[in-house]
Design brief:
Blueprint (H helix, E strand, L loop, with lengths): L1 E3 L6 E4 L2 E4 L12 E8 L10 E2 L3 E4 L9 E5 L4 E3 L8 E9 L7 E5 L6 E4 L2 E4 L12 E9 L9 E10 L7 E5 L4 E3 L8 E9 L7 E5 L6 E4 L2 E4 L12 E9 L9 E2 L3 E6 L14
Parallel strand pairs: 8-14, 16-23
Antiparallel strand pairs: 1-4, 2-3, 4-5, 4-6, 7-9, 9-12, 10-13, 11-12, 13-14, 15-17, 17-20, 18-21, 19-20, 21-22, 21-23
Length: 284
């Protein structure tokens, strides 16, 4: 017996039986049938071969295979921390590579999975998600697909990250440190006197403008990030025992006006021993 036909190499004859060879790979998606014919020949008589069967076709039926891949397209790769998230934001379309049999279930995992949701075959960032570059500069999620009847669990995954872009935020506070709390009335004010260092709490973006407010703001000045009592200020405990001032910070492109104000700082003027200024006679 001999074999012929397009797929003869996949078959073998044992005795008077025709077999599909062991180890033959069957895949409906790439080959739906195998064709073979059997020939018989008695070399002592007749032709060569003496007879050939009709072609035999072995059909391969489709079976449910596990999905082999899940991919994202039309992806959102970055988002501003001040972007509006009052509605869900589409992140990507989800495509599954599969044989269209069985039932595939999509799910999410990863450090930020709770911030995402799947609707149909689309991935969304949930409505109301709080975006903050300082605390979470990258939103990471893994999309998983699984056909529970075949393959592993999950059958395929893909990872996606959205970069959160830093945005200019308004300064949230201004404080005074290394504060000079008191000054004697006889202290020299020929040069400006440093009162405090000014510390602004901000994201280091935008431009902050410092200014002064308070009853005695005109007696103070800001140089860089330091607060000074102006040179030439006249100190006299008897007529003015304290000076009050507050520091204001404002980034005019964001927030309110001003964005933050320090607590009111009071510079106390202490009394000093002064020479008598006059002697007078009474009851003369």
């Amino acid at each position: 017996f001999t074999l012929s036909g397009a797929d003869a190499g996949a078959f073998e004859v044992i005795g008077t039986e025709l077999f599909l060879k062991a180890g033959t790979a069957l895949d409906f998606e790439t080959k739906t049938s195998f064709d073979v014919a059997v020939s018989v020949d008695d070399t002592a008589v007749g032709g060569t071969p003496d007879a050939t069967s009709t072609t035999y076709t072995l059909g391969v039926s489709d079976a449910n295979d596990a999905p082999t891949a899940v991919a994202l397209s039309n992806t959102l790769i970055q988002i501003g921390e001040n972007d509006d998230t009052s509605s869900a934001i589409k992140v990507a379309d989800i495509a599954i590579t599969d044989d269209a049999l069985g039932s595939n279930v999509l799910s999410l995992s990863g450090s930020d999975a709770a911030l995402f949701e799947i609707v149909g075959n689309e991935l969304f960032l949930k409505a109301g998600t709080a975006l903050d570059f300082m605390t979470n500069p990258s939103l990471d999620v893994t999309v998983e697909v699984d056909d529970g009847t075949v393959g592993g669990t999950p059958d395929a995954t893909t990872i996606h990250s959205i970069t959160v872009i830093d945005s200019n935020d308004a300064p949230t506070a201004v404080t005074l440190t290394n504060v000079l709390a008191a000054l004697a009335e006889d202290a020299s004010t020929a040069a400006a006197t440093k009162i405090a260092d000014i510390v602004v709490t901000d994201d280091s973006l935008g431009t902050n403008t410092l200014s002064l407010t308070g009853a005695d703001a005109a007696d103070f000045e800001i140089v860089g990030t330091e607060l000074f009592l102006k040179a030439g200020t006249s100190l006299d405990f008897e007529t003015k025992a304290s000076y009050d001032v507050a520091v204001v910070v404002d980034d005019t492109t964001v927030g309110g006006t001003p964005d933050a104000t320090s607590v009111l700082n009071t510079l106390t003027i202490t009394d000093a021993n002064e020479a008598p200024t006059a002697v007078a006679l009474v009851n003369t």
